[in-house]
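Appendix C: a fully annotated inverse folding record. The material below is reproduced so that readers can follow the format used throughout the book. The structure is listed first as tokens, followed by the designed sequence.
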């Protein structure tokens, strides 16, 4: 190397070369760095692939594990199933054996069943023929039973009718007996829980036997009583009235009717005649009520019968009377304490001139007047039951009929001659009749104006009597005024029994005048009316003495024969008849002065 310039050139050249190699080296470094970066990138990609492959490998490993487990399970199940199949095969072979045996067994059973069936068929055939024979016999027996029942019912009805005719001809008093249900007050002072128990006061000793007989059964005696009808405790007001109803038709045929309830205190007389209620609470109803008694029912029936007749041909009047302490009191009067008397007419007929008769034309009218009367009726509490009637109550419905209607003649405007005794020989009374009454005529008649001679009238009466209760004074526990009332009641009832006794024995003298009760009811009891006595009886041992007395009274009443009941004749003819009968009476009184 040259010194001086050469050296610097050299160095410059050298620097240039070095710079050049540096630059190429830098470029090379940059190229390598770029390559390096590319390689890094590729490495990262490869790492990603590697990770994914690893994951895949892991998943495959898991799947392989699961597969192994599943396979093991399958293998186990296959083993089990193989064993099961083995068992089933064994069972199948035994079932096959059975299946082969079963038809043979079935065949044998079927054969046996067929044999049994055959046997049963034979038995059935013989039974069927027996049953047919028996059914024929039963049919015949049923036929003859129903024939017999029908014949029996007809015979019974015929017997009843004949009995009624006989009773009517002999003038017998009809006696029905109603046995009431056991009531709480039958216990007296004993515990209510003992009601009806044997050995207590309320033990039932009166028993219905059938619809005509009843029996009193105590440790001392067994006694049977027979009446025209016996009502057991379950028979309703309606059933009782069904038996009473036929009597009422004769009212419009010209006969007087008297229905009288008799019995000891608390035995059900007021219940039977009116219905159950306290007297002062009695409220008449416009419509029929299942609990109502004989008075409202008979009134309703009377108006029903009248409705069937020619309009305006009948009129009705009502009076309400009580007999209290042997005094007759008019319960419709402004002065109910005024005493009234029975007046005997010249012809022997009984009249009550001072007693008010109110014209009525509906059931409601009648029952309102009865209610008015009941408010005044004497009543005081006794120890037997709280609302005991202390007087005899008599409701009288008088029917004023235009004569032709009850003689069943055709309605006519012409004047005709009628045979009044319906064809019976020997009486031959005649009358004439004309048209039906006008309202004015009827009103005039109700004020007791004598009807025009051309319009003869007939007055028939329906007496409905609720007697005061017969009682044993010791039992009723009364004193003072009540004791006096009780003794009057007992006296009047024994006077009634005496009258029946005298009538039953056909005594010359019948003591009607011994009590106002018998005097007031003389016509009805003595034969002028069809009389029905309704005996009311308690079933309890407590009242057995009173019940026996009441039943005995009924027996005595049944024995009375009063001769045929008198039919009422039209007013004009009645005068002729009464003149005739008073002549007869005068003639007979010469031989029998006491009657
Ligand atoms: N057949 C019956 N069915 C249901 N209850 C009845 C019957 N008979 C009577 N009674 C009841 O017995 C009680 C007494 O009856 P009721 O007042 O009619 O007797 P009574 O004979 O009129 O008594 P008294 O003479 O003292 O007035 C009443 O509470 C009544 O309701």
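Designed amino acids, in order:
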């Amino acid at each position: 190397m040259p010194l001086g310039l050469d050296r610097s050139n050299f160095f410059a050249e050298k620097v240039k070369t070095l710079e050049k190699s540096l630059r190429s080296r830098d470029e090379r470094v940059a190229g390598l760095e770029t390559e390096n970066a590319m390689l890094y990138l590729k490495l990262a990609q490869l790492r990603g692939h590697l990770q994914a492959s690893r994951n895949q490998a892991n998943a495959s490993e898991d799947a392989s594990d699961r597969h192994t487990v599943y396979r093991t399970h399958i293998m186990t199940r296959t083993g089990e199933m193989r064993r099961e199949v083995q068992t089933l095969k064994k069972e199948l072979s035994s079932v096959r054996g059975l299946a082969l045996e079963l038809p043979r067994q079935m065949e044998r059973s079927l054969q046996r069943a067929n044999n049994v069936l055959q046997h049963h068929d034979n038995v059935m055939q013989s039974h069927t023929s027996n049953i047919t024979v028996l059914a024929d016999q039963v049919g015949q027996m049923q036929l003859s039973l129903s024939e017999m029942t029908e014949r029996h019912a007809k015979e019974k009805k015929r017997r009843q009718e004949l009995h009624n005719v006989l009773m009517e001809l002999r003038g017998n008093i009809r006696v029905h007996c109603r046995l009431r249900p056991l009531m709480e007050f039958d216990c007296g002072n004993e515990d209510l829980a003992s009601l009806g128990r044997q050995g207590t006061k309320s033990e039932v000793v009166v028993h219905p036997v059938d619809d005509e007989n009843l029996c009193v059964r105590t440790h001392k005696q067994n006694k049977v009583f027979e009446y025209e009808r016996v009502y057991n405790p379950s028979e309703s007001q309606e059933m009782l009235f069904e038996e009473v109803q036929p009597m009422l038709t004769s009212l419009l045929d010209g006969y007087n009717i008297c229905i009288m309830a008799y019995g000891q205190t608390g035995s059900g007389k007021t219940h039977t005649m009116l219905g159950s209620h306290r007297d002062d609470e009695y409220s008449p109803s416009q419509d029929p009520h299942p609990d109502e008694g004989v008075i409202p029912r008979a009134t309703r029936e009377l108006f029903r019968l009248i409705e069937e007749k020619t309009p305006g041909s009948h009129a009705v009047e009502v009076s309400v009377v009580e007999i209290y302490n042997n005094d007759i009191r008019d319960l419709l009067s402004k002065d109910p304490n005024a005493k009234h008397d029975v007046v005997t007419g010249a012809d022997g007929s009984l009249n009550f001139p001072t007693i008010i008769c109110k014209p009525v034309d509906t059931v409601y009218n009648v029952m309102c007047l009865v209610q008015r009367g009941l408010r005044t009726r004497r009543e005081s509490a006794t120890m037997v039951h709280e609302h005991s009637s202390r007087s005899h109550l008599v409701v009288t419905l008088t029917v004023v009929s235009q004569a032709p209607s009850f003689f069943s003649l055709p309605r006519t405007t012409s004047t005709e001659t009628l045979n009044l005794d319906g064809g019976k020989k020997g009486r031959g009374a005649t009358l004439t009749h004309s048209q039906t009454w006008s309202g004015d005529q009827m009103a005039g008649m109700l004020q007791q104006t004598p009807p025009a001679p051309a319009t003869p009238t007939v007055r028939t009466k329906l007496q409905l009597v609720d007697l005061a209760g017969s009682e044993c004074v010791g039992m009723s526990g009364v004193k003072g005024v009540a004791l006096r009332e009780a003794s009057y009641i007992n006296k009047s009832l024994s006077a009634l029994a005496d009258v029946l006794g005298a009538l039953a024995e056909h005594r010359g003298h019948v003591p009607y005048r011994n009590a106002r009760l018998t005097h007031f009811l003389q016509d009805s009891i003595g034969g002028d009316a069809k009389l029905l006595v309704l005996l009311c009886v308690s079933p309890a041992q407590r009242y057995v003495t009173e019940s026996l007395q009441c039943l005995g009274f009924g027996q005595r009443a049944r024995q009375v024969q009063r001769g045929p009941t008198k039919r009422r004749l039209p007013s004009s003819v009645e005068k002729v008849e009464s003149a005739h009968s008073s002549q007869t009476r005068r003639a007979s009184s010469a031989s029998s002065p006491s009657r």
